[in-house]
Design goal:
There is one protein chain. This protein is flat. It is mainly α. The mean pLDDT is about 85.
Amino acid sequence: MSELSARLESLESFADLCESKGVKSSQEIIPGNDAEPGIYAL
């Protein structure tokens, strides 16, 4: 239960951050096909 609760809290924090930055869709924050190769963390 505690792991699920922690995951939900982090998801809520991420959703709040997206809302405060005006992100309307996850597609807006995913690197496009023209992005340099590498590891991206959301």
